[in-house]
Specification:
By secondary structure, the protein is α+β, with helices and mostly antiparallel strands. The protein is built from two helices and five strands, in the order ββαβββα.
Length: 115
């Protein structure tokens, strides 16, 4: 049995210019991947969600002590980011889809510290 607990940390809205906005979705896991970290990050870079309302993709991962953090970016164009229903739905879909993909990759790659 593989004990994988990817924790949703929070979502953060960033508006750089008036006609677009980005949400950053953050996850963490109470594990460090050590020498397998770079390989895991490369495999996660292929993850994205195709959606007519936004671009959603894996941004970055960092290890800090015994914890690993993951960032997802959702880029919305104006006026989509003003529609709370669309934004909330896509954030929820992103949380579920990324967690599923992450778990599949950990199992598929047999990455420590889980194996």
């Amino acid at each position: 049995m593989v004990d994988i607990v990817l924790k949703y940390e929070h979502a953060e809205l960033v508006k750089d210019v008036p006609f677009e906005a980005r949400w950053f979705i953050y996850f963490s896991i109470e594990k460090s991947f050590g020498e397998n970290f770079a390989m895991l990050e490369e495999y996660l870079k292929v993850w994205n969600i195709e959606n007519p309302n936004a671009k959603t993709y894996f941004s970055k991962a960092i290890e800090k002590g015994d914890k690993t953090y993951f960032a997802i970016t959702i880029e919305f164009d104006y006026p989509t980011y003003l529609n709370d229903e669309i934004v909330d739905t896509l954030i929820e879909e992103t949380k579920q889809d990324f967690a599923t993909f992450f778990n599949q990759k950990i199992i598929e790659l047999k990455l420590g510290p889980f194996f």
